[in-house]
Amino acid sequence: MKYSILIICIISVVIFPTFMVFADSTNSSYSYTYWGRPVSSPRGVMATHSLNGQQLGAGSLSEPSDICVDKSGYIYIADSGNNRILILDGSLQLVDVLDKFTMDGKPSPLNNPQGIFVDKQGLIYIADTDNRRVVVCHLDGSIVCEFEKPHNEIEFSGIDFLPRKVISSSNGYVYVLCQGIYQGAVLYDFSGKFLGYYGTNRVEITPSMLFDYYWKQIMTNEQRTKVRRFVPEEYCNFDIDDKGFIYTVTEFTSNSLNQVKKLNTLGVNVLKSSNRIHPQYQGRYGDLELKWYEGRILRSRLVDISYDSGGFINVLDQERGRIFQYDTEGNLLFVAGGIGFQSGNFVKPVAITNMGSDILVLDAQKCNITHFALTEYGRLIREASTLYNDGLYLKARELWLEVFNRNGNCELAYAGIGKVYYEKGDYAKAMKYLKLGYDRINYGKAFKKYREECLRNILPIILSVVLLYFVVRFGYWLMKRANTDEIKEVPGKKNRIKISCNKKRMNVLIQPFKGYNNYIEKNYYPKWLIIMVLVLFFTGSVLERQLTGFLFNFNNLKDLNILYIFAKTVIAFWLWVAGNWAITTLFDGKGTLLQITFISAVALIPYVIASYLRILLSNLFIPEEAIFLNILFVVGVLHSCFLLFSGLMLIHNYTVQKVFWSSFFTILFIAVVLFLIIILFSLYQQTYNFFKDVFNELYYMIY
Amino acid sequence: MKRGIIKLNLIMVITIITTLLTPVNLVATEKSAEYTEYASNNRFKLMINETSGVFYVEDRGNGERWYSSPKDCESDRLAKGKFKMDMYSALIINYANPDIGNINTSNSYTASVRKHSLKVFKVRDGVCFLYQFPDEGFVIPLYVELNTRGFSVRIPLEEVTESGLARLYDIHILPYIGAGSFSDEGFLLVPDGSGAIIRFNNDKHSYSSYQQKVYGRDIVFNLEQKRNTTQPIRLPVFGIKRNNAGLFAIISDGDALASINADVAGKKTGYNNVYASFSIRGMDTHKMGQNLGIAVKTTNILQKCKLPDTTLKIEYIALRSYNNGYSGMAAACREYYEKAGILKHRVDGSTPLFLELLGGIEKVKSFLGIPIRQIEEMTTFNEATQILHRLQGLGVGSIYLKYNNWSDAAIRGKPQARPSASTVLGGNESLGSLVRNASGLGTKVFLTIDPTRVRRWNVSYTRWNSSTRTVAQTQAVQYEYNKATYFKDSAVSPCYLVRPTRLPDLASDYRVRIDDIKDVGISSDGLADILYSDFSKKHPVDRQEASLYVKEATRILAGDEGLLTSGGNSYAFLETHSIIDAPLEHSQFDIEDEQVPFYQMVLHGYIYYSGSALNLSDDVRLAMLGAIETGSMLHFYLAADNNEKLMGTKYDDIFSIDTSTWEETAAMYYAEIRKVDVLVYNRHIIDYERLTPNVSCTKYEGGISVYVNKSHENFLEHGIMIPARGYRIIGGE
Description:
The complex is a heterodimer of chains A (703) and B (733). Chain A has 703 residues and is an alpha+beta fold.
């Protein structure tokens, strides 16, 4: 452990240039838990310093919009408002200001250049936005070639060609993002020939879109033209790695998914989304929480992306001025930045780039660049995650332990440690840590091994217990048979009924018609049975939520809402009963309220039994065996439905068809009641708020 | 050749013209500014312009003049309109009609001087400017009085009259006093955290100005979003260094109402200025119709009560040229506190390690699937004893043990009136044995109370009799803020503020209980860290008055030995034994240029202080070097249990707490701190210098210098090598 610190120190001495370092721990950073909640974390990167134009010695910047670093470490800033390019060296000293551009010896100035990129040969690509061209030039400002609006292409007719961002791949293709062109990046070869579009965003399907789609079917053509069109979201920015993968960001997507993509040469997204986060949040980047505030939804507006040499991806959020760093598996490592006039915070960050593992961010409103360097923690977690993702679990172990020691909230570290225990064969410990790290896949594997171990130990015991049980059971059966025969012959009435009821009750589950008939004939509907079933139904639901095995349980155990479960079970049951009674009374049903209650309760028994069994088995099974749990569930539900159906037929004296319709209307009835309840509730809330506001208003007036 | 002669001639002509013109210019200024002497002593004289209200104080020794408004601000081309008028003014006021709620601004030049409503009276040692604002209906007296160190400026609020409907909310005093122009060199000292300097003309025009409330934000006010964390102001001071002279200001009264403001030349005006303003009435906002989905209307809720009977008083201390930088300012500040009898004792040289231990926590445990809140131990009293043993074994000779959450009341977040040791942690017996063993282990135990914040109430401290009220009379609820969205987080249980008037009661209830346990000290969270007013109708308390109650509470808690406070606001200095979580850093506002350990330069030698916990810092070595640089002690926040137990609890921002991870580091770093402290513990810091952004030199009395290098490369200067990420002590052998 000590050694690793030492090694890291040595490495850092070699790599990191001198910048002012702050050791401020007032505002620690955060990361997201499995449940999508932000939780404190040490900072992964720290702002070392920020420089504005004056401090750089270049006069104030004017709406700078892009920044990039070439392979020898020089930094290029597109100072758009001043129509120039600033070049800085690795220690952020101004080297050159490019403001004179020439083409064939004649001056050809830039006009609001918004994008810049430097390729391996040192050629500078500038998206010269308001000149409607992309220029490629040398360091002296002499323009080598221009890319303009493709001629003779039908798609471009009537479109203003405004290139915003540009990159080029090592094999000579040039990708240009243009304002208002949503088909993807405009692709050229180096000679300037238009090749087509690259990596079009797909239209994300949302409910409102489906609704519009059906609505459009019944509209006239004229109306249709006035409805909004669903077009793919425009890419906001992109970056390219050494292997030619292109990383894109989209400012918003309608369902907040796929805001970040990693496209291969065919334009197919190959980015993995993290499996260490609740399925609800998988595939989402930036901040996970949306906040509705003053008529606007506040969510991450991803405006730039940068890829660093270690394979990590940095994403820049303009809404809250944040940098998010992800590893190759899509796991969030840390968050940095914020909004404000403090060093390391931004007002309108527009571009991000990497200088080794350091990060540079350009702010268009503060007109400055901010340099971030990794902290000790940042280095640790990056190294650990690299080793882990490469499958070197044991090597990663020390680092994960170190990360865990520095940050007890880091779920990745728990998973990393768990995985090591798994490799070592300590399955019980592995399960503990993998569970804390919410790594269900590896937990499943560890659990399987653990179960095998356990079974090996206790199988003989289980077998003997089972054998013993059958022996005892056989003996009991023999005895019981003898006894019942005896009792049957006794003429006393009370005993007899009890026993036959006992038998019939069991029969109900298998032969419902016969069984129900028994009760109906005797007009005997035990209320304790109803209560017991309901109690079991309710507790079963609670336990199912809380005690279902980790591998099958995606509920946050801390957010238990007993009232909600009560409503979902007991109140829903009574709603059904009431609804059915009301409907069947209209449909000439013969059944009484008590009968319906009884039938419904009895019908619940298989479902309840199945749910208890599932709770038990889910703690013993692994995901591959989930099919058994599903079968159990389906059988339980079907059996319950069958019982309910036959029971209703019997008590109401209905045909199958009639039972079906009455059930359908009962469900409709429940829906209407729920709807009314919701309306009443929201009305109540509104009235409450109204009076509260009136009260406050009056109060402040008087006060 | 010919050309040369012409050039020479030209130069001669120019020199002659300038020499001719200079006296004329002098006469002109003298004439336009008819200054009359109002007071003088052997060091200073006070000159007043009776018509404009502009005054200056002249240092007889060096002739340095401190003007209340810049001498040639007429010629400032940058300032236009209101900003120009502000420069001529001694006062800027914000006022409002509380029934309407719209806030207006006026300055004394436009609203009073130009309307010939300024009256000037001579008072003992000085002058009283009676600013009448005829349109607004205010009369504000501003006293300026000379003393031997400089001069003081005060506004006794009981002499302020408000005749119309409008009420005063903010008063800005002497916004451009001693301001530095484009041609001056110097800096502004602002007390942001440990202290920071803003250099004159630093060209940071795209950044917002500096403004911070003294002792932090008044948390009784509703804040919907909390965007950034800043280091609060702990000392109510500011300063200007201009060329060869320095002016240092201490807000000696009304400090709890004050804010410090600063700006650089080139934005609004051509001057670099720093000054104090005072919020003398409460102002809050409320949003109507937020839950109704209609257009949200924001209303200002303004306090209507009479003005507090505080005096707003700023002491300006003129610094001589030989000691005019921030070290001179620190010396002046030290001297001020010493003369006022606030800093009395000297530290004993024991070099304590500040060890904060977390006792118990409230954790949600599930019983048969049902979540139940129960108390769990993080560090029992026996475990604490063991930790002390181990640390002593590793060579830590002296420890200040701050024991948090040691009683059930503290763990449950209830008011700690007569608490007893939590049985989960071992009970009273066990605590007793910890305390008995501690002194043998070089440890002083401080049991923590936070009298200010509670999550639940109890029988004697109820929400009705003890909860602080907002302007709207609701309980002042303190929500946690969501780290991602910046908005209030309703998922975390909020806490409430104990009414300032109840703090002394709670303190004496606690004191009684602590007196039963022998030889135990008290540490307090909150008291020297947050300060809030209370708007409860029966007895509203403004922040200044609240600070008196807080002082009373600290006096009770401190007893004879003093209080281990966290935060370290200056009003608690008198009763402070030592300070934990003192500011070692500044807030890194863009407009600031450099952090300076001003706070430490004032306190070093009087009180042992430490910064925030090293184990929670981003870079431990860096934090240690920061401690050496600022003459601080080390602070660790530990527990016997490991990090995992805090996951998912409300303590999860303490993300690294395991003692076994940190004890060796703590001991190792302690040895290094000890080496330095042995030499310097009883010496003042007389200077602090930054050689490069990452290399600094802290100079103590007696010729001891401590060089600290935070960079990753060795640093060499004048044959002195300071190792990378290391330090070096020069002198004092």
